[in-house]
Give the backbone structure.
Amino acid sequence: MTSAPGSVGAGTLPFGKVFAEKYRIKRVLGDGVSGTVYTAEPLPGIAASEPAPLGSSTEAGERLVALKVLHRSLVRDRQISRRFHREAAILRKLRGPYIVSLFDFGELDDGVLYMALELVRGRALDEIIRLGPLEPARAVALAQQVCAALEIAHASDVVHSDLKPGKILVEKRPDGQERARVCDFGMAKVLRGDPSDSLNMLTEQNMVFGTPEYMAPEQARGDEVDARCDVYAMGVMLYEMLTGEPPFRYDTPIGVMTAHLVEEPRPPSSRVPGRITPALEAVVLHALAKKRADRYPTAAALAGALESAIERPSDVASTRPEPAPRASGIDLGTRDTEHALHISASLRRRDVAESAPAARGSDRPPRAGADKSLRFWITVAFIAALFGIAAGVMASLLGPR
């Protein structure tokens, strides 16, 4: 977790308070919907319950951790408590240089849950982006490190499913280089294993969870997700790092999610002319493909495409994803929404073709009812899209971050 100056008082534990007979509270790092994160010092003689060097971050000679504590008011909220347990269970098995490590996890007598995490010295990526677009080489380097973290998670059948700049911490290493650290797996999806580990078991079926600006189309529809959901979110983050803003901005979450379903993103090079090479732009747009079969199949494949884009900035062809094998001609991620949109697009092409003679001055009148038919199918498409996301959008907004 990130370390940043903060005054005690935003949370519930005062400076100097001993928590769980293990940690002495130093300051508040952040206060969220489900819990508060503190900088804390492990008491002398306290050892980590997890196989990681406890308190690797120091301040004036002190060993420090990021202590995440569930709000007492939520102790009896079974869904939030189980997510807290799930996040700890996931972090226990995810170890790597680009993932924030878990040191300790426990429960107090009154049911309050806590976890001690590695304290990362740095800033969240969203804070860095707010200063302006990143240089392409810097954006690519950070993206490749995030991809390395995703490789580890995906190899353990874990999909982050809420990847965004606010959950990427960037620290400066002793050699002056930057290192990205992925944190907060509280919304992660476990693809295989004990069904009780699945986020779907903790929520209503087809509810939508995540952050609209970084949500893959299948996620917005409430479909089952896989690793390509994180690849899409990584594409959104790349777009934002390179241009300073995400590909879609609307006033409402439903507007943003609908855009992910039906709109093609504006080419990033048009937002920052002269900064983005053709190959790098192609990588971003492939990662943002609407159909997951058209994206990079893995985080490793995305990282490799980024490497190719840096080495051969004009070679667009080398960035094309390998075609995913299909048992049939239907993408498993395609549902009624995409089908309706496909019909709408087909009708539009047909109507344009049939009305072309009239546009050229032909005596043949335009086909009657063409406009009505087009409007009807566009309406069907958007109703299908909105129906698929409206049921879960409020849960997405009110759920823990």
